[in-house]
Each structure stands twice: as C-alpha cells, then as structure tokens.
Amino acid sequence: MINYLLSKLYDRLEKASIRQKDREYRKRFKIHPAARLGYLPHIVFQGNIEMGANSYFNSGKIYSGKKSSVKIGESCAIGYNVVITAISHDPDFPTGPENERPFVEASVTIGDHTWIGSNVFVLPGISIGSNCVIGANSVVTRNVPSNSIYAGVPARLIRMKSQLPNEDN
To answer: Model-level pTM?
Structure first.
C-alpha cells in the first residue's frame, strides 16, 4: 500500500514539474500557444527560439546565440532526439581549450508544414523550406528547398514532393 501511495505522489510531482517547465519555456521563448512540446524532461532550449502555431517538438535540443535565432514555422512535426543549433565553434580556428575557441553564429529557419524525423542534426545557418521532409538520422549541412524530401549523412535530395491534388476536382 505504501509503495502505491508513493508512486502516486511521485507521478503528481513529476506532472507538476513538467507543467512548470512548460510555463517557463512559453514565457522565455516565443512559443505559440497552439504549439506543443513533447516530453519536456528531454527538451533543452537555449537562446532565441520561435515556434509557430500547431508545431510539435518531441524531444531534443535547440540552441542559438545572442546574434542568431531558430525559427520554426507553423504545423511542423519534429521527432525525437533532434538537435537544431544556430551556434558552433569556428572550425578554422586552431584546436585548443574550448573556452578560447570563437563561436560562429548563423540563424536557422524551418518553413511551415515541415516534418523532421528522429535523430536529425541541423547545422547553423541552414534554411529548410516549407512542406519538406527530413528523413530520420540525417545531418542537414545545406539549405533545403521547399517541397523536397532530404535524407542521409550528409542529407541529400531524395526527390521532390508532388503537388497536392486540387480540392476542386
């Protein structure tokens, strides 16, 4: 009986903690009220982040710096363990202590109605167009045009999406 009560208490505390983190994220970042955040214990946001209506971020990390941002459009579906970063260390700088290496910042933009699969990594400065699909386990190293399907390491064009049929016909 005691174990049952303790598990119920733990569940309530965990749900309260998740609700609190949701409120903090919505206050600190520009997350539309109709946007949904998935499993909050496994979501980390840092920097200037904007998420449009009806978009969903399941789990992972989004980072930007003081001079960059990450903008996610409307009705986007973002899978598990996705990393979107608008900040990185300068690859041309000689190796040395991490705190001495300069940062490179470039904003990331994700268009409306885009689906990003699980375990995707999006590099700084990338623009992903509207109505795109990024396949699971991909690394996006270049801009992705609208209405396209990209996948792989590095992500490459698989094919262009066919246009949706006209609803009047």
So the answer is: 0.83
